[in-house]
Amino acid sequence: MPLLNKNIFGNAGKIVFLFLFGLLSLTATAQPRLSDEARVSLLTSAPYDEEVFTVYGHAALRVYDPALGIDYIFNYGIFDFSKPNFVYRFAKGETDYQLGAARFADYVVEYQMRGSDITEQVLNLTTEEKERIWEALLVNYRPENRVYRYNFFFDNCATRPAAIIEKQVNGTIDYQYPYAPHTFRELINHCSRNHPWLTFGCDLALGSPTDRLATPHEMMFLPSYLKEAFSRAVVTRPDGSIRALVGETNLIEAVEPDEPEKDIWDILTPNLCAWLFLGIFLALTGIEWHRRAYFPPADILLFLLAGAGGIVITFLGFISEHPCTWPNWSILWLHPLHLVAVILFCVKKLKKAAYYYHFINFATLTLMLLAWTFIPQHLNNAFIPLVATLWLRSGWGVYRKKWKFG
């Protein structure tokens, strides 16, 4: 489902075959009407922790009609990374996803082999509703219709199937929402809880809008919540009669996956690396204080990295189309002006300007650290030692100017 999906990045040739070649015989014209034996199902695939691209799970629709020999999966999680400027467009939030299709057996094998269980919720629909959903999917699958602008929170592989079903049923779907409210950040951070670097990156890139409570319906952007919502949902017909949306639930169990191998980043977590980073600069500052000396390359490297991080945050906040990236309170400690500071550190004639920069930065970060718990945005715990490192070096810059050395 999520921002990245192993369906696309792993086994690329195989996936292109499964999803784009799998329906060569399927067209949106002259299709026979579904028989009374037809079934339409929502498929949700369990998250797969071994890859960061699969931790959010996945959702798709199945149309099965044994009388006509139809058994297809419709999957809104496909994109073509061979397109020109793909990396830039992805960073800018202009990734175009598309509706792909495959035979059910091929789809199931792919997820079973990776170790993801698939839950099939057979929908309790009338023959007319099944036909409408089938026709809507075929129309959506036409080349001129299948591409759409992906949005991680609001338009993805889970929201699209829900929207089609809601539109095509005869009545209103009333969700009972059997889950507690959460913010968007809480939802995605729970999914990435076994991948601290992914959590760190998301906390850095996503701003305060991510910390608002998602509505129960918005929470269905995650396949696991979509499945839960469907499990309790009812359809209220225009005549007032009510029926359950899901008529039958089946579990397609996966092959037991191999135990994932540990790598160095399972040990070197963001928290550990950040505190080590602060420790190095504390030691360096202590040596400089003891020797009454100054080592400029350390500050040049530190502020160069902070400035580069600031460019990323500024790009995501003001240029990209990714949702919930601005306002981002991390701009207080990571911003492009740090690159200006690098120039000040390199030119001796600008030492006075460097002092003023350090003074302003020291004051800003002091206020930020004091007000940390009051900032209306969740800030990753690993940010604290990184902010403290910049605070330390700017404080040291002010101290050095006062005592006239370095």
What does this structure look like?
- Residues 266-399 form the Lnb-like transmembrane domain.
- Keywords: Membrane, Transmembrane, Transmembrane helix.
- The protein has 406 residues and is α+β, with helices and mostly antiparallel strands.
- It folds into two domains: 6-179 and 216-252, endopeptidase fold (from Nostoc punctiforme) (Alpha-Beta Complex), CATH 3.90.1720; 268-402, no CATH class.
- It is built from 15 helices and ten strands.
- A seven-stranded antiparallel sheet has the order 6-4-3-2-1-5-10. A three-stranded antiparallel sheet has the order 7-8-9, with no helix packed on it.
- It is elongated, with a radius of gyration of 26 Å.
Series of H and E elements: HHEEEHEHEHEHEHHHEEEHHHHHH
Average pLDDT level: 91
User: Class of the largest domain in CATH?
Assistant: Alpha Beta
Give me the secondary-structure category: alpha+beta
Question: Key features?
Answer:
406 residues; three-stranded antiparallel sheet; 15 helices; 14% strand; disordered N terminus; DUF4105 domain-containing protein; Lnb_N; transmembrane helix
Brief overview, please?
The protein has helices at 6-9, 12-21, 86-91, 104-114, 127-141, 159-168, 184-191, 196-205, 223-232, 264-267, 270-291, 296-318, 337-346, 351-370, 383-402, and strands spanning 39-45, 58-65, 70-79, 96-103, 118-123, 147-149, 172-174, 234-236, 242-244, 246-252.
Topology:
Blueprint (H helix, E strand, L loop, with lengths): L5 H4 L2 H10 L17 E7 L12 E8 L4 E10 L6 H6 L4 E8 H11 L3 E6 L3 H15 L5 E3 L9 H10 L3 E3 L9 H8 L4 H10 L17 H10 L1 E3 L5 E3 L1 E7 L11 H4 L2 H22 L4 H23 L18 H10 L4 H20 L12 H20 L4
Helix pairs in contact: 11-15, 12-13, 14-15
